[in-house]
Amino acid sequence: MTLTINEEKKEFADGLNISELLEVEGVQNPDMLSVIVNDSFVHKSIYKETGLKDGDSVTFLYFMGGGA
Amino acid sequence: MIEWNDDNLERYSRHIILEEVGIEGQEKLASSSVLIIGAGGLGSPIALYLAAAGVGKIGIVDFDAVDLSNLQRQVAHTTADIGKPKVISAKESMLAINPNIEVVAIEAAVDENNILPLIEPYDFVIDGTDNFAAKFLINDACVLVNKPYSHGGILRFSGQTMTIKPHESACYACAFDAPPPANSVPTCSTAGILGAVAGMLGTIQAAETLKYLLNIGAPASNKIVTFDVKNMRFQELKIAKNPKCRVCSDSATIKLGGYEQAVCDIKKD
Question: Is B137 part of the contact surface with chain A (CB cutoff 8 Å)?
Answer without folding.
Answer: no
